[in-house]
Amino acid sequence: MDSPITSIKGIGEKTAALFHRVGVDTVGELLSYYPRNYDIYEEPVTFANLKKEQIQAVTGFVRKVPAVSKTRRYAVTTVVLEEFGEYLHLTWFNMPFLKNIISPGSTYIFRGRVQKKKGRLVMEQPEYFTPEAYREKLDTMQPIYGLTAGLSNKTVSKAVRQALDERDLNPEYLPEEIRMDQELAEYNFALRTIHFPVKWEDLLLARRRLVFDEFFLFILSLRQMKEAAEVQKNECPMTTVRETEALLKSLPYELTGAQKKVWEELKADLAGERAMSRLIQGDVGSGKTVVALLALVCAVGNGYQGALMAPTEVLARQHGQSIQEMLEAAGLPIHTVVLTGSMSAKEKRLAYEQIESGQAGIAVGTHALIQSQVHFKRLGLVVTDEQHRFGVRQRETLAAKGGVPHVLVMSATPIPRTLAIILYGDLDISVLDELPGGRLPIKNCVVDESCRATAYRFMEKEIAAGRQVYVICAMVEDNPELELENVVDYTEKLKGAMDASIAIEYLHGKMKASEKNSIMERFAAGEIQVLVSTTVVEVGVNVPNATVMMVENAERFGLAQLHQLRGRVGRGKHQSYCIFVSGNDNPDTKKRLEILNKSNDGFYIASEDLKLRGPGDLFGIRQSGLLEFKIGDVFTDAGILKAASEEAAKLMKQDPVLSKEEHKELQKKLAAYRMAGSGNMSL
Questions:
Q1: Which residues pair with 278 in a beta bridge?
Q2: Domains in the chain, please, with CATH?
Q3: 102-130: pLDDT as tens digits
Q4: What is the pLDDT confidence band of residue 570, given thresholds at 50, 70 and 90?
Q5: Rg (CA), the chain
Q6: Residue 195 and residue 153 in contact, taking contact as beta carbons nearer than 8 Å
Q7: Closest CA to 397 of 678, 625, 667
Q8: pTM score
Q9: Which residues pair with 233 in a beta bridge?
Q10: How far apart are alpha carbons 634 and 639 in whole angstroms?
Q11: What are residue 331's phi and psi, to 5 degrees?
C-alpha cells in the first residue's frame, strides 16, 4: 500500500505528476481515492420525457453532416435532432473531428446532461455510441472520479483495477465483534466493490463499511488525543489582567450574554489545572473574533505570546488589521505581526525576528505560521479560525511550537450539537447562539431562472446606492475544467446584461494565490462592484458594504454551505439580501431551499438539513468545506457516525492502548492513519 503509484504498470512520471495533483502518490492513496459518483447507463428516453439537469440518453437519427463553427475561444460542433416535433440541440466544444465520425443517415445513442438554454433543449459534450455499443453498457455502474486537467476517468479506473488485481489481500483489522454487531462487510470486498460495484445492494454494503471505518479511525484518534490532552498540565497559567478590561471598555458596544458566558468559560480554562482545548462554535456574525481577541490579550498581559491562524491570506491580513485597530482604540501597546506565504523574503525575515524576539505579542497568519523557520519566544495561546480547514497534525505542529500552549478553535460552520460532540471529541464546546444587537436580518428569496433579469435590475439599484454584490456559480460536476469556464462565461454574460459602467470581475479556485488576493482586496476596497465567484469566497473577506448575495443553481449546494455563503453579506449597517436561484423545479429541492428562505439561524438550518437527508442521498449534496471525509458525510451518514462513536467508546474502555492480540491489526491501521490520514483530514 505504501508503494509509489509508478509501481503500477503503465504509470510513468508524467501520469504520476497528474495523480499527485489530486493527492494520490501511493497505491494505498489510489485505492482510497473513491469514486465521487457512478454513471448508470439506462435505457434511452423520448425527447418528451427529457428532464432538465439530469443525465439521460436518447436515440437520434442524424439527417445532416454535423455543422462546425468557430468562436474566439472554441470550435463548436452542432447536431440538431428531431422527434415528433420536439428538437434537441447537441453541442461539442473543440471536437471538430466529429464531423468525420458522426455520419448522416445513421442512428446513434447520445448521452449527456440536459439543459434548457434560450428556450431550447440542449445537451453539451454528450457521449455518442452506436446502438450496439450502448447495449453493452446498459445497466452497468461505471465509477466517476474527481479529475484534473490531463487526467482522464479511464486512466484512473484502469490504474485502480490494476492495483486491485495485482496486490495481496489486506488483513481484516476491525475486531470481529464490531463487524458482527454493526453488520459490516469484509474490508477487501468493500474496497473492490466501492470502485467496481456489480449491483446497487453491494455498493451500499461496501460504502457503509468504508464510511464506518473512516469515522471509527477518526474518532479513535481523537479519543486518544483527548486522553493525552487531559494529562497535559497547564504550563501557561493566566489570570485576569487590566488589558482585557481596557479592551472591553473601549468597545463601541456591550458584549452579548452569550459572549460574556463564553469569555467566563475561557478565563476558567486559562487559569485551570490543564491546558485549554476549546471550540467556540458560533454563527456568522456572532462575535467569535472579539472573544478570541480577549483571550489573546489575556495571554500577552500574562507575559505570553498569542497566535491566530486563518484559512486564507486575505482573511489573515484582515484579522491582523482589525486586531491592531482594536488594540490601538483601547490604548494597548501590543504589537501584532502578520505572516503569510506571499510576503517577500525581507518581510518574512522581519516577521520571524519579531516573533522570535517576543516583540510581536500577537502573530496572525496562514499555515505559514507552522513552518520550521517560525520560532516563538513564549507561545501561550493558539487560536485557529475555521479550523476544519486545517489538518489535525497541522494544529498539533502549531501547538508544539510553544511546549503546551492553550488551544482555542473558532468555527462558523453550524453542526447540530449531537454531531459536534462526536466530531470535536478532543475539544470542549462553547456555543455563541446570540447575534449582537442592531444587526438587520438578511432578507431571503428563492426564485427560478425566469426571475434572473429582475434580480439583475435589483442588483443595479443596490450598486447605484453605493453597495456591492456577490454572485456565486456552482461548480460544474461533470468536468472540473468547466468550473473555470462557468465563472468566466457567466461574467461575460453579466457584463452584457448590466450597465457598462459597473465593474464586474470573477474569482475561481484555479487562479494563482496572488491573483485571488488581489481580486479580493480590490473588492474589499470597493473598486469591484460585482464579484462573480465559485465557493472560494465561502471563508473569505469581510466586506460590510456588500449587500446582495445571488447564488446560481442553489440546489447544487448543501444548506450549511449556502448559509455560510449568505454570511458574506449582512455585515454592515445596510439592509442585505440573498437571492437563491434554483435551476430545477424538483419539489424536494424547493422544500430544502425553503428552510433557508424562512430562517437565518445556522443551527436550526443544520438540524433541519439533517432531518431531510436520508440514507438514499449517497451522492447528493455534500457540505463542501464541512469536515470533508473522503467518503463519509456527517449529515447523510449521521447514523453511522453515532454507531462508530459508540463502538470507539466501548473499545477505549476495554483496551485503551489496543494492546490485546485481537487489536494488533487495528493498532497498526490506526498508527498509519494518524501518520497519513489525519494529516489530510480537513478538520
A1: 408, 428
A2: 42-138 (2.40.50.140), 173-231+637-665 (no CATH), 233-432 (3.40.50.300), 443-599 (3.40.50.300)
A3: 999 999 999 999 988 888 899 999 999 99
A4: confident
A5: 27
A6: no
A7: 678
A8: 0.69
A9: 274
A10: 9
A11: 70, 30
